[in-house]
Amino acid sequence: MIVTKEAIEHIESVEKDAIILLGIKASGCHGFEYELTLKEKSAPSAVDDCADVTSAYGWETVQADSITFMIPKDQYMYFEKATLDLHVDGFNKYLKWVNPLEASQCGCGESVTFFPV
Asked: What is the pTM of this model?
C-alpha cells in the first residue's frame, strides 16, 4: 500500500501519530465501500481497539511516517497495491483510493466493484 505525501500531510493535520483502521464493507450500488476509521491511542478496551495490535492478531499494519494503518488480514489483498492520495477539487479536499483491483466505480465514487482476487 502506498500513501502519498499529500495524503500523509492531510491526515497529520487532523491527527498526529494517527492509527487508522481500514476495511471494505458491502455497500452502495457497486457492491463495496472503503472504510477508514480514526482510532484513539488511549486506553484500549478490547483487542479491536488496541493501538498495538499486530499481524498476529489478525491485522496487517502499514506505517506511513507517523501514521499507522491497520487492515484486517482477510481484506489486506484489496489494499496491497492501492494508493491513498489527497484529491483537491476546488475548495474541497478528500482522501481517494487509486486501486488497480477496482473493476468499476459508481457515478458518485462512493462504491466500487473489484476484480476477482
From this structure: 0.79
